Amino acid sequence: MDEQDRQRRGRVTARHHTGETEDTTLLERRDPSFLRTDPWLVMRVTAEFVEGLDALANIPPAVCMFGSARITADDPMYPIAREVGEKLARAGLAVITGGGPGIMEAANRGCVEGGGLSIGCNIELPFEQKLNKWVQLGIDFRYFFVRKTMFVKYAEGFVVFPGGFGTADELFEALTLIQTGKILHFPVALVGSSYWQGLIDWLQGPVLQEGKVSPDDLELFRVCDTPDDVVEHVMSVLSRKKPTDPRSEPVVQPHKADAQ
After folding, report:
1. In this structure, are residues 122 and 133 in contact, taking their beta carbons and an 8 Å threshold?
2. Is residue 221 within 8 Å of residue 203, measured between CB atoms?
3. Is 247 inside any structural domain?
4. Torsion over CA of 235, 236, 240 and 243, rounded to 10 degrees?
5. Which of 9, 62, 88, 162 could hold 94 in an S-S bridge, CB 3.0 to 4.6 Å?
6. Cα first-last separation, the chain
7. What is the full DSSP assignment across 12-37?
8. What is the domain-level CATH number for residue 71?
9. Which domain holds residue 108?
10. Pairwise CA distance, residues 130 & 140, whole Å
């Protein structure tokens, strides 16, 4: 059989006159600067996705709880977050947090006390942030966007306590995903009406009046002041969850192009 008629499968093999094989290249010690190249970073990101998906694939239905890492147990919101975590656990839900102190610690603590699975998704920061002692399943992430994907993928809803930029980031990402039909029947509860009132005034004022959002967009979340209100809202939305064509949802309309 002529070489040109031979059929091969697998990768294309190039024969070099040097005699060097792929094994030779693999086994050489090389300059470690390749660790900062884009192809290598893609592999690290992929590995982090695999690790996160593998760790969380078998958890029960869960709710993410967000809020400031800067508060202590003396803050009035700490016992409320702790009670919400406990009540969600008693309702059969796991609780996912960023794994740090403050509101996150309170939520994880309450979940443990309620007999639920307490999960912490920690993030690498310039100054080390350790997982709080109430986390039962902890995952460390290098990349914010991988961690944020896990929050949304494995949560049935978000409960958002007073917090700063990171808390606002998670809140508005969830609202955008709901508004654009990426996630459906996803309850979002803001805890503490006095804290969030300024934001709501802004949304109902210039944002709505100038047509930057629609009136129904302001129905994507509920403001709650008690743990019972939070849990009632979460369970009420989840009880209506069913397979749905995103285009049939009132908040998902052709003009909703805010995320583009």
Report:
1. no
2. no
3. no
4. -40
5. 62
6. 57
7. PP---TT---HHHHHHS---GGGGGS
8. 3.40.50.450
9. 44-237
10. 10
